[in-house]
Amino acid sequence: MLRRVDMCYREIASAMASLRIPMLIIHPEAERITRSLAPEVAEYTIPFSFLTNDTWTRDYGQITVRQSDIWTACDFKFNGWGLKFAADHDNLVTSALFDKGIIRGDYENLLGFVLEGGSIESDGRGTILTTSRCLLSPNRNGDLDRIRIERALCMKLGAERVLWLDHGGLDGDDTDSHIDTLARLASPDTIVYCGAGTMEGEQHDGLVAMRKQLSTFLTAAGQPYDLVELPLPRQMKDDDGAPLPATYCNYLVTPEAIIMPTYNQPDLDKEAARTLEKVYSRAVLTVDCRALVEQHGSLHCATMQFPREMLIGHDK
After folding, report:
1. Are 149 and 60 contained in the same domain?
2. Confidence bin at 314 (pLDDT 50/70/90)
3. Are strands 70-77 and 63-67 parallel, antiparallel or unpaired?
């Protein structure tokens, strides 16, 4: 299915280029790939040839923190979602970007603490949203309890509080319930979340319990969150009949538009796009991500944003 995956990435790159967003492409043959892109896309592409284990830059890429006018790239340890898969190459990408002069700014080595970008959501104002199933996984930071992990998140990311979701998960998910498959902090007072759908079972029950718990969360100002439901895609399966973790929550926010995954389910694809357009008050671009979800991830998982000021030569 490499051809289909390649086409999916080219669509993502085209969407980025249409928004005039510079892109860093990480691949062992990044130069060749860049030359194969349409000129109007290649114009916004910076190739970085580097060996990786997989494609999920969300989880091994730098998590960027801003304090005053200083940007810091936090390089946390990525261990293949709790030692499920090899991650020896992925775990070196962030430091290599600095060593090769692709990224500038402050670099903080936090490789003693396991944290994936897809496992946390931030409103940028001191609140972190995460899931207990992921961050309390014994194969991540098994020597730390909830209180110590929460303290570490606040200290390392400059957060003031952590909201823990104790319910929810998608069938076929390898990440132990990453928050970016379930619920997103659209603003300091709005949470977009994945609906439970109609199919009965453990997934449905967990998502219903998640919705109930979300309704108990309060904003930093002490008010209930505005909760906005995204539809759950109809069940997708791989060639062996195993379920795939399709979700519209795995969208990417950019300054000009939302880039949202679709799954060839026109009615639900359109409903999800209309919902996000209303929540964010900006255009929604869509990319068919069926090829990615067959690898148990989607659009947000395959991308990681960082400040333009940190990308040398593309800081305007």
Report:
1. yes
2. low
3. antiparallel
